[in-house]
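Question (not urgent): is this output format expected?
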Amino acid sequence: MSLKLFEGFRFTGKPTPIHRMDPRPKLLIASSIFLLSIIFTNIIVLLILLIAQLPLIYLAKSLRRWSNSLRGGAVLATLIFIMNFLTGSTLAFSLSMTLRFLVLISAFSLFFLTTSPDDLGLVLERLHLPYTLSFTFTTAVRLVPTVALEAQTIVDAQRSRGLELDRGNIIERLRRHIPILIPLIVSAIRRSTELAEALESRAFGSCENRESLITLSMKRTDYFVATATIIILLAGIFVRLWIPLPSLDEGIRLPSIWG
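Got this back:
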């Protein structure tokens, strides 16, 4: 799996309408796409869910990094297709599972590319999650791209020393990743220790009633986007329950090796 996948989840502030939008409608959009992609296995619907995100990504001026996240997940998507097709699923079902994975990557890539971890933490607090839980989650979101970049640096350093990661069988390739994992784990432990010491020095958790410096406020456009998203979500659920959709599944599958 390419480390470019994590680059597509790293927030960068930009003066775009999507970045300026309140994080709650953006979380609602990502959650609605997630739910619709789970309840539908129809290829047409999944393609619509994927293509419908393109205007938002274009408005967010994040097309290149969004495409990096899809390219980074291409290996896993290919693996999902192969495993489904080889284990007896039809060609259409295997394609729909692959598309579902890409839709999920795309939706949450759009959310994390345009929403800062601070705004995400404020949303989680407004959802009445315990502050320690929201802080842990937002810290993980903030650190994952950093760790991925650090892993890429270690890979480049080891390759410059002659380490060949793409040669040999699967066992040899796994063994050659050990010189990458060890410094990465040591660095992660050192980073977590420093973070814990910084939190203790600032008396983290000593005050139960916290008051945020920044409060979220939704504008008229945010309410419009949230309302439109809820309507689309309800319409999707209605279609899934009561309206039959044309199926592209022709029953094409590999012959069973068990007879």
